[in-house]
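Homework help board

Subject: predicted structure for assignment chain

Our instructor gave us this sequence and asked us to write out the predicted structure in token form, then describe one feature. I got the tokens but I'm not sure how to describe them. Can anyone check?
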Amino acid sequence: MKTVAVVGSGASGVASAFALQAAGYQVVMLEATKNLGGRMGDAYLGDRRIDFGGKNIGRNYPLFRQFAETQLPVHYEFFGINSASVRNGRLYRIDSESRLKTLLNMVDLIGPINFLRIARLAWAVRRDPENAFLGGPYFRRVAQRYDHAPMSTYFGDQCLRHLLRPMTVRMNGAEPDEYYLGNIGSNIKMILDRYDQIKEGLHTVLDAFFESITVMRETVVDGLLMDGKRLFVGLSG
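My token output:
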């Protein structure tokens, strides 16, 4: 059995290691820190183990669900996406479980023109799954036309304040004018999905996977050297 080294234990490293393991390779994972999982990692708050990220698993994430269910029996619980905004003393809710009410609230909150613009972008994502990813064909054309300017040139201030800002700050850690229209397809895809969390915690799945491979913590990759068909990895730690 051939051995393959995977550098890093974050989402990309885990996905690569899982695919290699499924293909019959022996995997050695090299992690520079003590903690595993990268942005999917965890820490203790008192005696309670807390997951950092990756907790919300879309129902349109079949590969991740396959990975999780391959490690151990998992039990899901629904996790809804919701937000709220106040305008002129009225509370408007954006709730993934009350879609008709949410659509009516959106029309009233951001105006019909901005609503139609959002709907057009959502239709592009629904029509072609490639548009849910960076560089999708529709949003590549949108980017060529609009990405030289901030989002406020396409959507009004009302839409930015009440709809887009909660979305970009929560999903991307960025203000709307630090974000670009050509990237928004991935956000819309996330909003259109429904989400669950693993009751036992994501860390239980990752723990089971890391136990199935060889993991070297506090091992830094200093460099790579190719010699013909051989690859040498320089390590420290």
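Reply (TA_rk): Your tokens look well-formed. For the description, you could write something like this. The chain has a mean pLDDT of 87. That's the kind of observation they're looking for.
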